[in-house]
Amino acid sequence: FVIIGIMLNLMLWALVIRPIGKLSQFADRVSLGELEIPEIKRRSSDEIGMLSRSIGRMRTSMVQAMKMLES
Fold first, then answer.
1. Going by C-beta distance under 8 Å and a sequence separation of 6 or more, which residues neighbour residue 42?
2. How far is 58 from 53, CA to CA, in rounded Å?
């Protein structure tokens, strides 16, 4: 049972915790004004993939809004 618990914990970390941590760091950098950072490449169709695409669209919209304000 211990081995199964360890395997489930590693799968949870790799499939959920690590991607959400990366998205959190990306969103934090965007909120601080770093709009030229590269987009996160997550093309899955699950909820984390949808969140990744939404955050990417948010960054793109912010870049466009900043360009409109500058002109």
1. 19, 23, 48, 49, 52, 53
2. 9
Quote the CA–CA distance of 11 and 33 in Å, as a whole number.
33
Residue with tokens 């970390």: 13
pLDDT per residue rounded down to tens, the chain (71 residues): 899 999 999 999 999 999 999 999 999 999 998 988 888 887 888 999 999 999 999 999 999 999 999 98
Which residue type, as a one-letter code, is found at position 2? V
**Alpha helix positions (H), the chain:** 2-12, 18-31, 47-70
Structure tokens at 71: 């002109």
The two structure tokens encoding residue 10: 């590693």
